[in-house]
């Protein structure tokens, strides 16, 4: 009996420790910052494997525009991602029926071999989406609306920054253009580097715009910390060419598929 009594303080301490850890884990499971990653397929496809890294999806037609890559969940105080909040996560495609054409157009999976994109949507939802506290439909709907509101391609074109196979643009000009619509401290420009003679000669391709978003996925916000770019001072803004799919090449000057209005998409 004495041994049992002596063990009680240790057990109480262990119980308290487990309680505190559980409380910390619960607090850490609620993201207060989202990152919207918008992918430029022209830069992504042409900067990797000499332009042979992309395939046209098996379903739908990707828009000649910036695509959604992900909407990620973060803890702004620690800077750490919050992921995989539900070990029993389920992804259901049927609730997205009203969004499906826009998903195919603006949230495709360009990886090879060609696919219908659903594995990517499942991965994004189960990794990040179910950590937001939003329903599956609201998560994907609001992400598509944020992509449209950011209006990256039109903004760049208004500043004379257009996709071109031979031209390069100053990174400073690209950033100034984006500040005019996104704000001065709400985004970063990311590039993929393709070497022609390693490690001396290379070109940086504009590939991704990373944008800070409120935790309810409704508003572009000022980033809590400065997001740095990995691009050099001169950047290529490559046209969209899907080399793996002859006859279905895209050009960023083509008319993009239009999202239905926010009112039409209102839940």
Automatic annotation (TrEMBL):
UniProt cross-references to Pfam families, sorted A to Z: Ribonuclease_T2
Record flagged with keyword Signal: yes
Leader sequence residues: 1-27
Keyword Signal applies: yes
UniProt xrefs under Gene3D superfamilies: Ribonuclease T2-like
Gene Ontology terms for molecular function: ribonuclease T2 activity; RNA binding
Protein name: RNase S-like protein
Assigned protein family: Belongs to the RNase T2 family.
GO-annotated biological processes: RNA catabolic process
Top-level division of the source organism's lineage: Eukaryota
């Amino acid at each position: 009996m004495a041994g049992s009594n002596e063990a009680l303080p240790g057990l109480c301490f262990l119980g308290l420790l487990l309680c505190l850890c559980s409380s910390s884990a619960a607090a850490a499971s609620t993201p207060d910052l989202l990152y919207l990653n918008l992918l430029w397929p022209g830069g992504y496809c042409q900067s990797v494997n000499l332009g042979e890294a992309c395939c046209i999806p098996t379903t739908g037609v990707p828009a000649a525009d910036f695509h959604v890559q992900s909407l990620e969940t973060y803890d702004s105080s620690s800077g750490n991602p919050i992921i995989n909040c539900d070990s029993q996560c389920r992804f259901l495609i049927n609730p997205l029926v009203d969004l499906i054409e826009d998903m195919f157009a603006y949230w495709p999976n360009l990886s090879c071999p060609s696919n219908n994109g659903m594995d990517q949507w499942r991965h994004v939802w189960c990794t990040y989406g179910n950590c937001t506290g939003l329903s599956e439909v609201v998560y994907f709907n609001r992400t598509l609306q944020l992509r449209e509101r950011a209006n990256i391609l039109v903004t760049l074109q208004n500043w004379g920054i257009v996709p071109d196979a031979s031209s390069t643009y100053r990174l400073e000009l690209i950033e100034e253009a984006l500040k005019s619509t996104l704000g001065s401290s709400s985004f970063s420009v990311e590039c993929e580097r393709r070497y022609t003679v390693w490690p001396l000669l290379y070109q940086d391709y504009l590939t991704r715009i990373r944008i800070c978003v409120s935790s309810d996925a409704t508003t572009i916000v000022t980033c809590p910390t400065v997001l740095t770019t990995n691009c050099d001072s001169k950047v290529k803004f490559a046209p969209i060419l899907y080399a793996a799919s002859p006859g279905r090449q895209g050009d960023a000057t083509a008319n993009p598929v239009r999202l239905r209005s926010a009112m039409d998409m209102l839940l």
